[in-house]
Amino acid sequence: MVNYEMEVILAVVQPKQNNVFTQEYRPKLYNILLLDHKTASSGEKGKPTKYLPTFPLTNVQEEAGDEVLANLYQLTGGDHVGIKGERALQIQWSSDKYRESLTRFALFCVPVNKGDKLNRMFVEKSPDYPGFFSLDYIIETLNNDTVAYPPPTRTFISQLESWMREKHAMPGAINILFSRRADYRVKLSVNNPAFLPSRFEHAHESSGMVIDSTPDEIRHTAREALTRMLEIEKCEKVVLNPVFGSSFPCKPKVVRAEVNIYWGKGVPDYNMWPNSHRNSSTGGSYDSLYPEKYHIHRLVNEGNVKAIRDSAAYVSHLLDEKHPKYGMPIHLAAYKGNAEAARILLDSGCNPNALNDLGQSPLHIAAKEGHCAVVQELIKKPETSLELLDKQNRTPLNLCEQDPRSPKHQRAANLIMAAIKKVVNRQIAVYLMDGTFRMLNLSQGDHTTVQHLNLQLLRALNLPPKPYADYFTIWICSKSLELQLKLEHKPMDHLHNWQRKIVSMLTGVTDTSKETPTLKWRRNAKVGVVSEEREVTHPLAIRTLFYEAKHNYINGLYPCKDHDVHTFASILILLEQEGKYDPGNAKSYLHKNVSNLVPAPILKAKGQHLSSTIMKRYKEYCGGLQEDLKFQNKYEQFLQRKFLEFCRKLTVYGSAFFTGSLQPNSKSSILCHIGVNDVGIHIINMKTKVMLYSFLYSDIRWSHPEAQPNYLEIYSVNDNSDSRQVKIKSRQVGLIEHLMQKLKDLHQYDDRQVNLVFGTSGRR
Question: How is this protein annotated for GO cellular component (predicted)?
Answer without folding.
Answer: plasma membrane
